[in-house]
Amino acid sequence: MMTHSFPKGLHSFYIRIYKIVDDSSNNTSIVWDLKKLCKEFLPKYVGLGRNYLHFVLELQYRGFERVNGSGQLEFGYENFVRGQPHRLRKMALQLEHCSMQKHKVFNSFPPQFGLVNRLWSYILSREGSSRDTLWASLSNNSLSSISDLLKHCTFQVTEKGQYKEEFVTAGRVPLSEISLKTMESKLVPNLFFAGEVLHVDGV
């Protein structure tokens, strides 16, 4: 059996199943011989199910579908293919998408965004989304608007925060290397710095 790197976030059930299918020492008996499946494979691979019925229910719950016309109890998944582990990444994205559909937009967002909850809530409020809106019911116009805000959101400073909310962080860009009037780098034209990247300390 070859060693593969599996996509981050892929449920362990899929990984265990894939290792069985990808193992050349396992012949078709794991599919056709139900007695061998129950007596040898289910006890050997922990987490597949307590028994045959549990295993089948787990397959269906995880998105595997019955293959019709084979005359056997056979299940398949679009991107779950022996010898093609690269397709598992697409499968992981599909599973993440299906899972997201059931959640409220305000309570969840794709981890690839790398956002903090406070900023995400602000973006949605600015777009006008309801706090009860599910991902599944989000319109294409709203998705487009949210996308634009994530890429081109502008902010207007109106006032300073309350006392003790302000703080500075000693960054690593020396003030001697920027123009304090424009905040432009003296070393690289059209490169501007601001905020916590500047080497300023309030102590």
TrEMBL record:
<dbReference type="Pfam" id="PF22780">
    <property type="entry name" value="HI0933_like_1st"/>
</dbReference>
<dbReference type="InterPro" id="IPR000232">
    <property type="entry name" value="HSF_DNA-bd"/>
</dbReference>
<dbReference type="InterPro" id="IPR055178">
    <property type="entry name" value="RsdA/BaiN/AoA(So)-like_dom"/>
</dbReference>
<dbReference type="GO" id="GO:0003700">
    <property type="term" value="F:DNA-binding transcription factor activity"/>
</dbReference>
<feature type="domain" description="HSF-type DNA-binding">
    <location>
        <begin position="9"/>
        <end position="94"/>
    </location>
</feature>
<dbReference type="Pfam" id="PF00447">
    <property type="entry name" value="HSF_DNA-bind"/>
</dbReference>
<keyword id="KW-0238">DNA-binding</keyword>
<keyword id="KW-0274">FAD</keyword>
<dbReference type="InterPro" id="IPR036188">
    <property type="entry name" value="FAD/NAD-bd_sf"/>
</dbReference>
<dbReference type="InterPro" id="IPR036390">
    <property type="entry name" value="WH_DNA-bd_sf"/>
</dbReference>
<protein>
    <recommendedName>
        <fullName>HSF-type DNA-binding domain-containing protein</fullName>
    </recommendedName>
</protein>
<dbReference type="InterPro" id="IPR004792">
    <property type="entry name" value="BaiN-like"/>
</dbReference>
<dbReference type="InterPro" id="IPR023166">
    <property type="entry name" value="BaiN-like_dom_sf"/>
</dbReference>
<comment type="similarity">
    <text>Belongs to the HSF family.</text>
</comment>
<keyword id="KW-0285">Flavoprotein</keyword>
<dbReference type="GO" id="GO:0043565">
    <property type="term" value="F:sequence-specific DNA binding"/>
</dbReference>
